[in-house]
Specification:
Elements lengths: L3 E7 L5 H12 L4 E8 L6 E7 L2 H9 L11 E5 L12 E16 L2 E15 L2 E7 L3 E7 L3 E8 L5 E8 L4 E5 L6 H6 E3 L7 E4 L13 E7 L2 E4 L2 E4 L5
Antiparallel strand pairs: 1-3, 1-4, 2-3, 2-12, 5-6, 5-14, 6-7, 7-8, 8-11, 9-10, 10-14, 11-13, 15-16
Length: 239
């Protein structure tokens, strides 16, 4: 099954936060990634789509649906579509707490750093996805076709591996909008990290267009991981 569950039979006065708390009392805190509440065709009641972080969470709700304690009757069904297509949990090998460096190769053996930031990293839908951990929220996508050469290097401390990606084209950069969210929309919707329509395309966020001047990116990874093309494998499995 998938990660999304369709639940119908809600009265019109419910809101996304209320039903999130209700169902996470069964599946566990933080297990719901996104919620959309919508009116039925007749407009008398609401149904809700719940996208969970993992399939096991969705399955747990379906198998334990009789434990949901409400004064109204709810109907539970599997749903094959996702609400948020950029769900981190659906990415391949999402990792947080990394460090990225933008810059260029001054020589074949020397990388010149122009800009550095903490980041998260994942892959999916023919893109590398990484987010900069700064005072503002920025998200970047690097299409596979914009990747030139990929190579691994051991850090000087020999405690981590450095993934060097030489670029044929730059990443797409998105900034999260800080505009006021419509109260009615906020009442009926929830998504960790914000929905896609809350992000807008932008240009360089560092001063002096440092990302635009970069022809390569270095990511600092735990030593036990290995990256080959668009796929991840453990270095312990490498012959």
């Amino acid at each position: 099954m998938g990660k999304t569950v369709n639940v119908s039979g809600f009265p019109p006065e419910v809101n996304a936060m209320e039903v999130r708390q209700l169902f996470e009392s069964i599946t566990g805190s933080g297990t719901i990634h996104a919620i959309r509440l919508k009116k039925t065709q007749h407009g008398e009641k609401f149904y809700a789509l719940f996208q969970f972080a993992q399939e096991t969470h969705a399955n747990k709700l379906l198998t334990q649906s009789t434990e949901v304690n409400t004064p109204y009757r709810l109907n539970f069904h599997e749903w094959k579509y996702e609400i948020d297509s950029k769900d981190k949990a659906s990415m391949e090998h999402y990792i947080d707490g990394l460090l990225m460096h933008f810059g260029f190769l001054a020589t074949p053996e020397k990388f010149k750093y122009l800009y550095s930031a903490g980041c998260s990293f994942g892959s999916g839908n023919q893109n590398l996805h990484f987010s900069a951990h700064l005072s503002e929220d920025y998200r970047m996508e690097l299409p596979y076709e914009n990747i030139g050469q990929i190579s691994w290097h051991l850090s000087q401390e020999k405690d981590s591996k450095l993934l060097l990606i030489q670029l044929k084209g730059g990443p797409k950069i998105y900034e999260k909008q800080n505009q006021h969210v419509d109260p009615e929309y906020e009442k009926l919707n929830f998504c960790r990290g914000g929905f896609d329509n809350e992000w807008i395309r932008t240009t360089d966020f560092p001063s002096s267009s440092l990302i635009g001047q970069s022809s390569a990116i270095v990511f600092k990874f735990p030593r036990e991981l290995k990256f080959i093309g668009p796929e991840w494998v453990s270095s312990s499995h490498k012959s």
